Amino acid sequence: MADQGSATEDAMEIVEEGEVESGEVTPSPEKELPFLPGFPSLQEYSKALISQVIAATKASNRLPGEGDDFEYYSSFPGFKTFCDKMGGRANRMISKLLRQQALPCHWPTSEGSDGVDERFDALEEANDAIIERVSLLLDEAAGLTRHQQPMLPNSEVQRGTAEVASWNSKRESVRNAVNSYSFIHAKIVERPQLKFKHQVDNSSFSFIPLLRHKPNAKVPLPEVFQRLKNPTTLSALIDNTKEWMSTNQANFHPYRHELDTLNYMDSQLELRELQNAGSLEDTPLSFVTTLEQLEELKNELMTVPEFAIDLEHHSYRSYTGFVCLMQVSTRCHDYLVDVLELRHHMHILLDPFTNPRIVKVLHGADMDIQWLQRDFGLYIVNMFDTGQASRALGLPRYSLAYLLQYCCGVEANKQFQLADWRIRPLPSEMVKYAREDTHYLLYVYDRMSNELIRRGNKRDNLVRLVLDNSQALCGMPYVKPTVTRDSYLKLYYKHKRHFNSQQLHCLQLIYKWRDDLARAEDESTGYVLPNHMLFQISEILPRDPQGVLACCNPIPTMLRQQVQEVNMQVQKARSTPLTSILPTVSGFSKEDETATPPRTEPPRPDSQCEVRRVRIKIHGPPVARAEPVLTAFKGEPVTVTKEMRDKCEEILLSFPNILSRFVEPQAMTRNQVFAMHSTAPELPPPVGEFPLNSTSLVATPPSAVEGKVKKSNGKKKKLSVREMGREDVESGGMESGGVEAMGGDESPPPKKKKKSTGKREAPEGELTPFQYEGSDYTKFAKQGREVKVFNPHDNSKESKRSSKSKVHQKFSERSQSWKKGEKKK
Ligand code: AMP
Ligand code: ZN
Ligand code: MN
Q1: Ligand 1, atom 12: closest residue by C-alpha
Q2: Which terminal CB of the chain, N or C, has fewer other CB atoms within 10 Å?
Q3: 333 CA distance to ligand 3 centroid (A)?
Q4: With 50 as the cut, is the pLDDT of residue 510 above it?
Q5: DSSP 3-state of 52
């Protein structure tokens, strides 16, 4: 178990062979029984389990993906056979597990991509069901749900009750040891929404921009907004702007003109000196919780040339979600802004945020831009999105974790991404996580910006591309998620069920009930009634309220409260005649015409249904890839052994060349055969490595990027990508492992490692990652609040509820279909 590499494999073995341990160990009276053989306690067991799940996830993430390199790798018989074998095994295991757990989902046997889709859906359903079950059992263990008999209470909704959230935490003290986890929990005193000055607007009317003043304006804010300096209620605000919005400005963006006419500063297009971020412990951290502190932050931000921003968001206990925390980092200071406290005042940051002379650095800002508008009326002008830069540089992964690893040598721990960010005060683990999201970002920005400039042409095409794409993101106006009369059909097609007209009608009615209630109570639809329960009720069409509740395990609070209403809907559906004509997707309902189309996938056509095309807005600008893809950061030199060469040759020869059909094999020498394959693609990096630079197997050590930027009298001459590539080839560097090197004619035979000439300057040094490993992160942990460790034996009231919310939260994050396919949503 300690060996992570084989641990996952072992676990698979056990399940597949059906040797599920039954725990039938003869109890010895004097010795305490272990939780399971090999595991003294539940905690030991969950520790081992979580670390194995993580190891398995990591391993699977390293596999080449579909549409990525998978097809290419699959052309190697060895790879394909192995994958088929493992895939078959995984399939059988999952199928067995589902049967063993008596889960009500169908595990498809069909092959091909359709089969894969179906299996993913089935897995999602199974996971939902399992997590619900776990949640129920934890509640039961905590004594929260003693009466499992379905109850039919009155329909009053309890609000503002204390809640507790828990999540898994990898403890700092055991860094580098076998992954260790503990449960920590904290109390959420009340729903943060109750403190919001303006109630959230869950109506189906289009979003109305919240800003009332427009700093850094080139064109003034339309008068209709300025008249509303201090609207008392949101409805007053909506009433005042409704006409204006619906007549001409559904797509209105207050900073459209400023973004369209933005001129980048010279400093954004020039190579910059790297400024190390410093360790967390050497950097001051400020919690911003009052208006005065926010004003101070704003004043500070007005004085810097650039700063980094990130947001943390909560979506389970809210209809559209809300931002909980804003992280800001300057070159020498980290800030955590409690936006739950300051939500109503956040707009004062509009000044630095829209100042075109201050660069705002974000990573993967698509959602952040939307959330800033929705919650605070904040906009950004002049952004550099390091996620866009990752794409333009053609990096193997676009995640922040990847950039932190490769630029800063920091192993980011992303497990708090889905934590419950409503918790106050923030536990030290979450503080550290949140800081790391912006702390290194300006350094990453320096590195990426330099790389884009080096690889770009004379017109700085790459860095401009990234900046333009970033401004395009800034210019996307927030649109509310839209639910229409037919939205339930999209869900239906996605779940690939086959309902008769009564079942489908039931689905429609309960879907509507769920959506209305979620809006009214400001809860997510997943919290009101998870999808798999919605489908279960619609499929079974129970005869009475008890039957409705019996479809759900555990019973969601809101369903319990409104079971009579739901039952009425079910009976209504049951009373409709069975017909063979199923409803069609016929466009949007009248009241939704003002709103923009939903972000969900269009429904899949079904033979029984006529499906009309719906307009789908693609979020984020199209992203062009840099070409050729060269190296971004320094890689480890590869020593080429004889075996490696032989293997290369063998693989190369295994590619059938169509021309070889016309040549007698015996008539060719080995070299001629080899030459025929010279157009075969460059060999990929070994599976599991995916180094940033496309290191070919005939690699020589990295050469400096000399000559890419020639400085004379302080002026630089930038070369085109192609010129750069040629220079690299000429200097025998391996950085040209991209197209130029593979091009055959132009690529020289591999050369031996060239010694650095000594003349070389800055660039090579710049590419050396800063070492953060030595930093002591625990210092800040001490400053934070004391973190409680989950103790299953603790019977105190606080810990009793501890297990619930996080389970629910994770569950919701998974089951909310609107999040699928998007980065964060
Ligand atoms: P990040 O930009 O990584 O800091 O993420 C910001 C917020 O996006 C988090 O607080 C989450 O609420 C949300 N988020 C990020 N990744 C995911 C995901 N994979 N699934 C659901 N929500 C996510
Ligand atoms: Zn983010
Ligand atoms: Mn973040």
Answers
A1: 313
A2: N
A3: 17
A4: yes
A5: helix
- Which of 755, 758, 756, 739 minimizes the C-alpha distance to 747? 739
Q: Which of 45-59, 206-220, 679-693 has the lowest mean pLDDT?
A: 679-693
Tokens 């064109």 correspond to: 219
Tokens read off for 72: 């290419």
Q: Which of 682, 686, 688 is nearest to 734 (CA)?
A: 682
CA of 416 to the centre of ligand 1 (A): 9
Highest mean pLDDT among 48-62, 664-678, 732-746, 747-761: 48-62
Asked if residue 3 has pLDDT above 90, the reply is no
For the chain, the residue count is: 825
Query: Does the CB atom of residue 418 touch ligand 1 within 6 A?
Result: yes
CA distance 160 to 515: 21
Burial class (CB in 10 A: 0-12, 13-18, 19+), 42: exposed
Return the structure tokens found at 106: 């169908």
Q: What pLDDT is attached to residue 518?
A: 98
pLDDT in tens, 592-606: 333 333 333 333 333
Beta bridge partners, 163, equal: 188
The phi, psi pair for 308, rounded to 5°, reads -105, 145
Q: Please identify, by atom number, the ligand 1 atom nearest to the C-alpha of residue 437.
A: 4
Q: Which of 230-234, 520-524, 609-613 has the lowest mean pLDDT?
A: 609-613
Ligand 3 centroid – CA 437 distance (Å): 5
Q: How much is the pLDDT for 786? A: 39
Q: Return the best residue to mutate from 315, 418, 808, 822 for the ligand 1 pocket (most ligand atoms within 8 A of CB).
A: 418
Q: What residue's CA is closest to ligand 1, atom 6?
A: 312
pLDDT value for 91: 82
**pLDDT value for 159:** 34
Q: Which residue has the higher pLDDT, 376 or 180?
A: 376
pLDDT value at position 363? 98
The 10 Å Cβ neighbour count of residue 277 is 26
* Whether pTM exceeds 0.70: no
Amino acid at 147: H
Question: What is the position in ligand 1's atom list of the atom closest to the CA of 419?
Answer: 10
CA angle 362, 363, 369 (to 5 degrees): 60
Q: Which range scores top for mean pLDDT: 73-82, 629-638, 772-781?
A: 73-82
437 Cα–ligand 1 center, Å: 11
Sign of CA dihedral 55, 53, 142, 144: positive
CA distance 470 to 251: 19
Q: For residue 430, what are the contacts with CB-CB under 8 A and spacing of at least 6?
A: 416, 419, 421, 423
How far apart (Å, rounded) are the C-alpha atoms in residues 656 and 54? Answer: 39
Characterise 278 by phi-psi region: left (phi > 0), alpha (psi -120 to 50), beta (else).
left
